[in-house]
What does this fold into?
Amino acid sequence: MKKTRVAVIGAGPAGLLLAHLLHREGISVVVLEAKSRAYLETSPHRIRAGVMEWGTREIMVQVGLGEGLLRNGYEHRGIYLAYAGELHRIDFPSLAQGWRIWVYGQQYQVRDMIARFLEEGGKIFFEYEVVGLADLETTPKIRFRTPEGEEGELEAEFVVGADGSHSRTRGFIPGLVLKEKTYPFAWLGILAETAPAAEELIYASHPRGFALFSMRSPTLARNYLQVRPDENLDEWPEERIWEELNLRLGGVAQVKPGPLLEKSLTPHRAYVAEPMQHGRLFLVGDAAHVVPPTGAKGMNLAVADAVALFQALWAFYRKGAESGLKRHTETCREHVWQGEFFSYWMTSLLHTQPDPFIEGLRQAELKQVLTSEALKRFLAENYTGRHTTGRWVGLWT
Ligand code: FAD
Ligand code: DHB
It folds into this structure.
């Protein structure tokens, strides 16, 4: 491992999708990943997204990464909003030109993509941590530490920073500005062996706080509670979590306690890093932007970035065109800010706000969403991904 055309740092959804797309075009690519394969595929710390936009589902299927998700995932044609003891359904196909969503865990998709990439002769170096970059304007060098603790160097024509929200590669972009927002809440998340609250996701707005009822399968529930960012998880024994989830459902459904497989706290924040590039280094996914989780946009934005950068690299290698690479930041800025906007909107709409005036406005807005066809359409179009992966689905058809 001395030289490659494209070096991808990070084997998350963004890095793996890009690497797969380049490899199947015969463009040499090497993936360096700090963690082990087992950690990525099985660690409870890597249980993340559960909802794919229709565009993400279509892209995965069209490029040959859809076998697992088609076999083991679920089509959902709507979500529920719960408010004041009533359930309101948002019907996606009728509101969003036939679009809907696909429920399949990100960790399963990552496992599928690793297996496929390796089967096809792709190169992933697990437990290789990237520690530095150099010569990004000429011939990039990537310095890494091997599992044995030795240092080595890889030379590449392009470097892709797909190294997630704690990105180290982001630090190599001079003049980078991080546009940030923090939120006064976090999610306490659980994964439990029990039936989900309903056959589709329920987003519940309750005076005690927001709660989300999601799933991975008909016997695996994934639920979240709005809590303070500094919440102490020790104060949440299992019985208290189940009781609170049921209170926040407000009587519209019931969850039955089951064995907990995971319990975690995710503080909410958002940022966009601009520019997303310098010389021959390009950022994709969480390395460049993070959204609060309510709109289920994070993984989908990572997929949109990977497709956008693939298109630019393909044009460079096949046609000698550099313009797509030069415009990487501008190209991604379009779907990134649409995703940030919707995530901000849906977070503000559904979470109980500490400021009583803002809380009054929030409830007024929610009542409009529940009764207005136009606002339901707005929610459905954004949730299913019209302005994010929706921009990119046509490429392989
Ligand atoms: P990551 O998945 O973070 O991958 C980055 C990889 O880079 C990691 O494997 C990491 O180990 C590796 N790495 C880091 N540093 C180095 C280094 N120096 N050298 C080598 N490798 C390195 N999104 C949705 O779309 N829908 C949802 O429903 C949703 N729910 C979520 C729920 C939770 C609780 C959380 C935490 C996130 C959720 N997200 C959701 C967001 C989504 O998980 C992320 O946006 C997504 O993981 C981003 O993918 P990525 O490839 O950019 O980064
Ligand atoms: C899940 C996470 C989300 O952030 C969301 O909006 C919907 C579902 C999940 O983990 O299932």
